[in-house]
Structures are given as C-alpha cells and as structure tokens.
DNA sequence: TCCTTCGATAAGAGATACTGATGCGCTGTG
DNA sequence: CACAGCGCATCAGTATCTCTTATCGAAGGA
C-alpha cells in the first residue's frame, strides 16, 4: 500500500491498460505488472481482472480510497513545506468563481500582500490548495446558515467562513414567477433548470430540496458566471445564484445561504490574517476554525 | 513519505527518543535514525531537533497529518479486505457505550446475525471500525437535530443515523433546578460539572453552549454510564445524558439531540441491512448516506 | 574528569525494484 | 482453422535501497 503503488494502480485502472499506465508513469510495462502484483500480494486479494483490464469489487474499493489518500498525502507534504518555508511574503490565492464576491474581491485588491489570484472549479479548490498551489483557498457553496461547507477532507487546514449571502432564483422577466417575493426550492423541482456547475450543480439542488426533479433544459460547462446569468435571463432554464451576482427572486425555503469559506495552512500567519480581513463585517461572526472531533 | 516512515516518525516523537522508538517498532536504533534522515531528505526539511528529541514546527505539521493519514491507510486496507471477504456470515459490531440505547440493544439481540459486540470510547469507534475490527460501527454524539455527527474522516464508509433522542441534565434530587421543566445549557455554564467522557465531554459542552465555564467538580475516567448517573445523582456534578439513560431535566436550548449513527462498509450488505434494521421507527427518516461533496 | 547515554555514521548483507528479454493466452483476421 | 498482433506475466540480471552490526562523538550526570 505504498503511495507509488497506489498511484500506479489508479493509473492502470484509469487507462485500462498496464502498458499505457507504464508509459504515462515512465516505467516499463514489466515494472507496472510487478507493482500491481506486489499490491495484490500485500492485500492478498485480486484487484484487477486482466484482459480487459477492469477492477474487481475489491479493486473498486481500493480505487475509491486511493484518490483521497493520495490527495491527503500531497496535502500533508505541502503543509509541511509551507511550514518550513516560513511566512510567505506574498500570497497566492486560489478561489472558485463565485467565491470572489464583490466585497472579497475588494478585500483582495486592497491587500498588497496578495500576489496572484487564480480561479478553478469549486471541486478543485480544496484539492489545489492541499497540493500546495496556494497559500489561501476560497471556496463557495450552499449550506444552512452558519453551517460549514462540506468539502473533501484534506487534513486540517484552518477554515473560517468569510461571507454568507442570500440566494436568488434567476428567471426571465416574463416568467410567471418573476414577480414573486420569494420562492421555495421544492416548488421549482418541476421547472426546467440550467445545468451550470459554476452556479449550483443540479444534484446539489435535489439534495437541498430533498426531492428529485430539476430537469435540465440546457447545459453550460464554462466557468463564466455572467454567461450563466444571461442564459437564465434568456429563459434557457432557472439558475440559483447568490444575490450579489444577479437579480432574481429570493429563495425562502429551505433556509440555505451561499457561503464562502477560507482555507489556509495553520502555519501561514499572513494567510490567516488575510482570511480574517476578508471576513465581512455584516455577517455576524460565523463559526470559527474547524477540526475533526466527535 | 512512505507509511512506514511516517509511523516511525510518529513513534519517535511520541517516545521522544530514537532508541525507544526503535525498540517499540522492532528496529535497531540505527534504522530509525536512517529512516528519519530519509524522511527529512525527502522533504528537504528538518523535522526533529535532537537532544532532546522534539519536533520542529515543520515536524509538528507532519505529526498532525500523520495520524489521520495512517488511519485512512488502515481504513482503506480494511475496506478492501472486507470487500474481498464477501458478505460476512456473522457480524462484529463496535459501539461507543451510549450508542447502545435500549432499542438498539434490542435490535442487536433480536438479530441472530450479530456475533459479537464490543464497546470502546467514543473517539475510538471510527478508528477501530476503520481498522477493520468490526463490520458495523455505532457511534453516539451530540448534534443539531438530523445533523450528521462530526467524526474523524475515515474514507467513505456508508453512514446513517439510527436514533435521535432528547438530552437531559442529570442533577441530584435536592438540586434547586431539579424541579424545572427545562434547562438552557448556557445557564449552566457556571455550575459544577462531572468530567466524564463517556457522557458528554466538557469541551463539547462549551462548544455547543458557545461559552466558556463548565468547571469540573469531579472526574470519572471509566466507561460505565451507570456510575456516571450515580455520581451525578449524588451531587458530584452535573452530567448531560440522553433521556433513556437517566432521569433528569430536559435540555431545551440549544436545540441539540443525542444522536447515534451507524458506520458500515459499502460492500457489506449484511451490515447495511442490520444498520437499516436498527434504525428506529419513531425518528423520522434522518438524512441518508454521507459522502464528501462540495 | 570519567562514564553513561543517545544519536550519527560507516560498511556490508540481504531484500527490493527496476530493465530488457521472453513467454503465453487472448482476439481479430484471412 | 491458422496465424499474427497485442498485451500482460514471468524470468534473469543489475542497481538501489534498507536493514544490521560496529563504531564514533557529543551531551549530561556522578
């Protein structure tokens, strides 16, 4: 179960080929074959069926663990390295698109210690932060008010909420519901939605509404929020977005908010200071640092 | 960063000695010295100060990651092995003491497929389950109604809530508050409490009350809930316990409940079935399986 | 000061983990 | 049905790694 064996295993499954994995990893096919054999011998279990190459049920389980395990590995390494490098002079910030609310953007530009800002998809932020690509991570998501976001576990970076905001349903002006004062998500399950992961993924809608439905009328794969707003306004489907991004009808039920959280290494004082500074005064002190506890 | 190096590192820090760690792990002192040297060379960072042996700041960070990382390692291995072993004939269940509510205990005894039940401290359940010591884990804890418990991350075992119950403050009959209909936790911050991790740890009280205080009058280190009840009734300090365990005054604020969750491997159908069966009818369907999501 | 303790280092034996060559079963093709 | 091509397994050989034993040297206590 050494990390390099896991990495090889993952690659083999992904490429569905020992030889292709070998090439990708810079080994010979023989080495890959032996590595898999070692892994299987170590666990005493067949992990792969050959020809065609597919994971066995046990292999599927291992596959599911391997990703997070390797991610955590990288996170640990990055964290140690950050601690050893000492406080960063200038900070690199990585954020999901919607995490850069106007106020946060202002906070970032006002702060001379920020060197670079990079945005990536919401699911990638924690991962990229963990890999050491940035000193501060900003992720957005949907949660009950003052509840922490559910993020892939990546060790114990300090984590604080920096902003919470109302959500609105964006719909075209002529839409029958456009004049409402508020909307309940469950009532919109039968409507046609925009699939746009940069806003709120459709599966997440089902999850927070607790019902199925939410058929997709149109899919948008980019990262540009503006485009999503325009598509929604043009009637390609509904979109759920934070109020500061677009005009729309407030979401009144369930009681969820758009929340932005900052991730930073416990050893980076500058990042901690910046995170604290980004924390918006209007939002009453959101819950503090997180840690695994019973 | 191979697992065995991490294990050695952790042991060295823990024992504060290379030689002692070597003995504990069955290596020579020389081997341990070399392993630490390899780890430090790999990361390019000094992890330990020698004489006396103490972690550097970078070492502290690594130490914090190493535990969860190794735990996850074991969890992955155990999960793969469980998957390979096929559905268990008879199940081993591991539970924290308070997780065995009367109804759950009944469910377990009614179920002939259960072979063994073992209880361990609340913090150990997830860990022991992850290590493959049991097919089903039952953990209790305090949470907002229908919120999942916060458990150490251990991969993606399926997780369902099986019971939720009101909490009561146990106090002696002659206590001035004993006749109240309900109590707010924050109002009890100045009272003297029983430190008994088998009930609710004092730190957790501070956490959910959101205030300090909760001074400890008396400490109990065992695992026996009955003793805690007796101690509380005898006036050694207050205790917060699920209503089914002891008579007491219901906790009315904050709105938290005693919750029991079942952990089981995704590949163990028997365990899943048992978990579903333990699920108590009175509690309206608590939120389902968990997984890391954005 | 001397002795003990404890970690670092050197040297060598054994285990491990690669490469390159070859074997062998499957699959597709004529 | 035979055969070629593909792809994983296996074998042999070598380089590397990871231990052990032996020894050194610095720090701390008597």
From TrEMBL, chains A, B:
Keywords: DNA-binding, Transcription, Transcription regulation. Residues 1-56 form the HTH lysR-type domain. GO terms for molecular function: DNA-binding transcription factor activity; transcription cis-regulatory region binding. Residues 274-294 are annotated as: Disordered. Belongs to the LysR transcriptional regulatory family. This is HTH lysR-type domain-containing protein. It comes from Streptosporangium carneum.
């Amino acid at each position: 179960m050494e990390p390099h064996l896991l990495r090889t295993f993952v690659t083999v499954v992904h490429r569905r080929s020992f030889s292709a994995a070998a090439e990708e990893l810079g080994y010979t096919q023989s080495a890959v074959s032996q590595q898999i054999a070692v892994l299987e011998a170590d666990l005493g279990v067949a992990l792969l069926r050959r020809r065609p190459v597919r994971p066995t049920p046990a292999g599927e389980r291992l596959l599911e663990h391997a990703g997070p395990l390797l991610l955590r590995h990288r996170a640990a390494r990055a964290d140690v390295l950050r601690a050893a490098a000492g406080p960063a002079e200038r900070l690199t910030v990585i954020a999901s698109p919607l995490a850069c609310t106007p106020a946060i953007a202002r906070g970032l530009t006002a702060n001379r210690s920020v060197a670079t800002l990079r945005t990536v998809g919401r699911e990638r932020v924690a991962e990229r932060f963990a890999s050491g690509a940035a000193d501060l991570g900003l992720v957005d998501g949907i949660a009950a008010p003052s509840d922490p976001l559910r993020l892939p576990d990546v060790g114990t970076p300090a984590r604080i909420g920096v902003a919470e905001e109302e959500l609105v349903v964006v719909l075209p002006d002529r839409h029958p519901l456009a004049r409402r004062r508020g909307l309940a998500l469950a009532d919109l399950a039968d409507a046609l939605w925009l699939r746009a992961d940069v806003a709120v993924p459709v599966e997440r809608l089902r999850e927070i509404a607790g019902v199925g439905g939410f058929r997709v009328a149109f899919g948008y794969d980019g990262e540009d929020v503006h485009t999503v707003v325009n598509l929604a306004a043009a009637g390609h489907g509904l979109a759920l977005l934070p109020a500061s991004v677009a005009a729309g009808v407030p979401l009144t039920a369930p009681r969820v908010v758009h929340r932005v959280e900052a991730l930073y290494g416990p050893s980076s004082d500058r990042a901690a200071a910046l995170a604290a500074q980004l924390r918006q005064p209007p939002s009453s002190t959101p819950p503090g640092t997180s840690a695994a506890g019973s």
